[in-house]
Amino acid sequence: MIVFLVFASDPDPLQDFCVVVDDSRIRVFVNEKFCKDPNLTTADDFYFTGLNIPRNTSNPIGSVATLITADIYPGLNTLGIAFARIDFAPNGLNPPHTHPRASEILIVLEGTLYAGFVTSNPNNRLITKVLYPGDAFVFPIGLIHFQLNIGNTSAVAFATFSSQNPGRINIANAVVGSTPPLSIDVLTKAFQVDKDVILDLQAQF
Amino acid sequence: MIVFLVFASDPDPLQDFCVVVDDSRIRVFVNEKFCKDPNLTTADDFYFTGLNIPRNTSNPIGSVATLITADIYPGLNTLGIAFARIDFAPNGLNPPHTHPRASEILIVLEGTLYAGFVTSNPNNRLITKVLYPGDAFVFPIGLIHFQLNIGNTSAVAFATFSSQNPGRINIANAVVGSTPPLSIDVLTKAFQVDKDVILDLQAQF
Amino acid sequence: MIVFLVFASDPDPLQDFCVVVDDSRIRVFVNEKFCKDPNLTTADDFYFTGLNIPRNTSNPIGSVATLITADIYPGLNTLGIAFARIDFAPNGLNPPHTHPRASEILIVLEGTLYAGFVTSNPNNRLITKVLYPGDAFVFPIGLIHFQLNIGNTSAVAFATFSSQNPGRINIANAVVGSTPPLSIDVLTKAFQVDKDVILDLQAQF
Amino acid sequence: MIVFLVFASDPDPLQDFCVVVDDSRIRVFVNEKFCKDPNLTTADDFYFTGLNIPRNTSNPIGSVATLITADIYPGLNTLGIAFARIDFAPNGLNPPHTHPRASEILIVLEGTLYAGFVTSNPNNRLITKVLYPGDAFVFPIGLIHFQLNIGNTSAVAFATFSSQNPGRINIANAVVGSTPPLSIDVLTKAFQVDKDVILDLQAQF
Amino acid sequence: MIVFLVFASDPDPLQDFCVVVDDSRIRVFVNEKFCKDPNLTTADDFYFTGLNIPRNTSNPIGSVATLITADIYPGLNTLGIAFARIDFAPNGLNPPHTHPRASEILIVLEGTLYAGFVTSNPNNRLITKVLYPGDAFVFPIGLIHFQLNIGNTSAVAFATFSSQNPGRINIANAVVGSTPPLSIDVLTKAFQVDKDVILDLQAQF
Amino acid sequence: MIVFLVFASDPDPLQDFCVVVDDSRIRVFVNEKFCKDPNLTTADDFYFTGLNIPRNTSNPIGSVATLITADIYPGLNTLGIAFARIDFAPNGLNPPHTHPRASEILIVLEGTLYAGFVTSNPNNRLITKVLYPGDAFVFPIGLIHFQLNIGNTSAVAFATFSSQNPGRINIANAVVGSTPPLSIDVLTKAFQVDKDVILDLQAQF
């Protein structure tokens, strides 16, 4: 039997809150959500912990973005907001990506980040800033943005989003690391380079 | 002659961004906003600094909430998101209040906070949690909530909101501190107490 | 196994209407809604009666607000609108409260009401008007408002809301009548009064 | 000089309220609206009177619908709600019409109304009910609906809408009374009747 | 056991997409939709074919509008967009109708169409244009509009809509062809004609 | 004096339509829009022509997408919909891009297109289809998508969008062709390739 419910938007709630009830028998089939009886909700439904714990950044890009969305934080459901902790090793990069469903505010807690985003066509302006602890930067919905740790130490930032599930598209993964891969014809023409350059790019993913 | 625009909602933008252009001749009269020519925007339009600076909490409630909305952060305009830094002295209280236009996520950076909110009628359940650094708590849109510093040190938290201008209504200020004051008849009947209690309450504001 | 749907917003419908089908086996557990087969809907699904019947106002505040929302009026489901009948005994009070999810228009049918609302911080202006039969007054979403019957007779008003489930938070019930009660520390600091005053307030609830 | 502002939606406000300021010098050019300085607003901005005054129904259809929208009630601006008083002479008809931007709740105060609406294609079901004082009926957004006074006395109803400007399209006026008129070819084919019937219809408008 | 989901609006999705899974056992009971496991979606879920095939226009009005909505095109679900192919015989008419939930852009591929819409009360202006291949015309949400083939050949147009289920109300069908029919009293008064004219109109449906 | 209006969203209109009035004196300052007096609107405000004219595709990618948005089609303003004509030379590519503010339906008129999109993290699935005349394909909001002409002839498609200004971000232009360019450090780390490959990519833009 298939059972499900997928929230289709980030509207105002129609009740104080709609805490997700997770049911493993169902979760096998789809990523559904439904509301817990409000009288059975507890403080823990609205609570999330561990944002102060450094994440392991020993990976090729030296960065980890930990998104906290309604999928793992039931109290966020229907409230139109989510957040993330981002850890950077020295020279760590949160690579160019977009959030198809949310704008983002980044707040730096530790370290020095070189952050930026690119505006849409036709201008594709790159707008960047070096950020220190206590600095905030805004990434408008859907635009390609990134952060690079340019300090000598690890860096930490919090990000907040205007959706309970902003989504994330890493440009490199999507363009040269998709499953199956984009055809050579598409990529050589898109980037106006010859086949070898594209093969070099795809070889990494 | 004065002409101006007030954004009436937190929808998706219709452009990459709409940086507020401030015009003091107009601003004197209304809190209007309009868009800067996208080609003239700079990184500073999307940048805010000083969130790491402790605020002065020497006031009767021992707490200060510094809201960063599109009014003072032009890059947030039309993006449906805003944030705040909240400082607490020992025993400091961010008193019971509502945000009429946003849900809130609170993230504790320093100290120990006793946080809670009250559900709507008919149950008016009080849902509370003690929060430590790295803990987050959600306050659904429109519900009365508060945080009390129950630690021996000062405390600091960040809050994020699902609106570029969440608004804030301090219950005590609105109910017993309005200008002009609410009539004694309304308050004695609302709280079911005699006149002296209400006069005691109003005397403080 | 129980599965159900809770409407999360007041959007435009995606069909002519979505009449709630009530299923007592489920309703025991949650306030779910789902759509009746449009071809099985009848005029009674869109019909509500009894708004002309005076309600019993013999209670401490001398007032009763009867909210008619999609919970009890299935035809309202997904239409983003609801209404209420409010009865007042002489000196009856509809106490200070907010609707977290709707603006309200009040229309007086009988009697004389002293009505008002308080704007948000920092000004907390009290805006009031004496209303007679045929007068209307607007209460913007999320703001604290009230009505007091200042005539010698009973009074009746209709209210309409911009949500199918506006919600209601009585300030007195939420602040000094919650379950469990708000801590004395929070209330004494919020209202800047000593413990005795708060105990007087809480004693009534 | 050109000045303008047109509110494009019924979203949540981004401020407590945005009272329309009317400026006849501007109104000549466009039907613009803009916000009054919140500190200059008065109770009268949120107040409307005269809903208890019977309207003159001596017209061919024996009915008058008095819409109270943000255009004439500045306090409604950005709040997503409006209302109307509808007067009926005996046998008076509020003729088949749609509201392109709102759902409606009708509440009968006096008299007996035969009310109904027609569902959309393909079924075009007619759903009707006889309404007495204290009865309410819902008309979903965009559907054709009407009310006929079938009692021996005049009738009065209040209607509320889920938009600050629901709009109104009288079917007869739009189809056979437009300026200029719809072509005979369109109407004869649409109604599958010969030219004489259409000319009879158009002759009345 | 019945399980279901009815999408209540055209908001932004909360996931990349939500492909409708159809289940005939359920469809008997409600017009539900639910999401296919994203990992099981295929290209065919996002694919629709046959728009180049002329439809049979041998019917009284000489026109066929083929609406492609989320009901028959699962990939459109939650994306807020739909489209149609409209075929016209010579002199064929797409009769006056409204879409209660969407604005429309019409693009002519073949033939010559006389297209128009009527503005709402009080002006009811008729705005028309003769359209040739490559021409587009816009019909704002909820307004009555039509297209008549005034060329000597058949005509074809594509229409796109700002909703995944715009709905359609043919004015003639709804006003004189509903089930059951609108009462003679309502129609004679609405159109200000005598009974015979109305009977002529109803006789065709 | 500066006067302006920026539409912040794609909501339902608050009037039948809001035709853009363009005023070059103002346009110098901001990309504003405002409404033409409804009584002065003409059919031409809602009309666009020339979609049947092939565009010149003699450019490096062999493709041209002609977006028709409210900026150049005033009647679309506030209606939440826009469209495009896309011309392809043999082997022409509409390169990988996103629309940050709209979902898209593509309808093929001539030729054979290989079309696809990539889902968001973590799976980054590539979903593709070969499309012939009369075929439609959906690209969900914010996802990277493309079309390649794999036929021996030129190809033509129409696209429609769920926003009056969907925006467009060409991935190649934004990632390796921005002004100023993204730093080598960011790109080498993002694509996990050495500097020479990135320089090859940037050399083309």
UniProtKB/TrEMBL annotation, chains A, B, C, D, E, F:
<feature type="binding site">
    <location>
        <position position="104"/>
    </location>
    <ligand>
        <name>oxalate</name>
    </ligand>
</feature>
<dbReference type="InterPro" id="IPR019780">
    <property type="entry name" value="Germin_Mn-BS"/>
</dbReference>
<comment type="similarity">
    <text>Belongs to the germin family.</text>
</comment>
<keyword id="KW-0479">Metal-binding</keyword>
<feature type="binding site">
    <location>
        <position position="145"/>
    </location>
    <ligand>
        <name>Mn(2+)</name>
    </ligand>
</feature>
<keyword id="KW-0464">Manganese</keyword>
<feature type="binding site">
    <location>
        <position position="97"/>
    </location>
    <ligand>
        <name>Mn(2+)</name>
    </ligand>
</feature>
<dbReference type="InterPro" id="IPR001929">
    <property type="entry name" value="Germin"/>
</dbReference>
<feature type="binding site">
    <location>
        <position position="104"/>
    </location>
    <ligand>
        <name>Mn(2+)</name>
    </ligand>
</feature>
<dbReference type="GO" id="GO:0048046">
    <property type="term" value="C:apoplast"/>
</dbReference>
<feature type="binding site">
    <location>
        <position position="99"/>
    </location>
    <ligand>
        <name>Mn(2+)</name>
    </ligand>
</feature>
<feature type="domain" description="Cupin type-1">
    <location>
        <begin position="49"/>
        <end position="199"/>
    </location>
</feature>
<keyword id="KW-1015">Disulfide bond</keyword>
<dbReference type="Pfam" id="PF00190">
    <property type="entry name" value="Cupin_1"/>
</dbReference>
<keyword id="KW-0052">Apoplast</keyword>
<dbReference type="InterPro" id="IPR011051">
    <property type="entry name" value="RmlC_Cupin_sf"/>
</dbReference>
<dbReference type="InterPro" id="IPR014710">
    <property type="entry name" value="RmlC-like_jellyroll"/>
</dbReference>
<protein>
    <recommendedName>
        <fullName>Germin-like protein</fullName>
    </recommendedName>
</protein>
<dbReference type="InterPro" id="IPR006045">
    <property type="entry name" value="Cupin_1"/>
</dbReference>
<feature type="binding site">
    <location>
        <position position="99"/>
    </location>
    <ligand>
        <name>oxalate</name>
    </ligand>
</feature>
<keyword id="KW-0964">Secreted</keyword>
<feature type="disulfide bond">
    <location>
        <begin position="18"/>
        <end position="35"/>
    </location>
</feature>
<dbReference type="GO" id="GO:0030145">
    <property type="term" value="F:manganese ion binding"/>
</dbReference>
<feature type="binding site">
    <location>
        <position position="94"/>
    </location>
    <ligand>
        <name>oxalate</name>
    </ligand>
</feature>
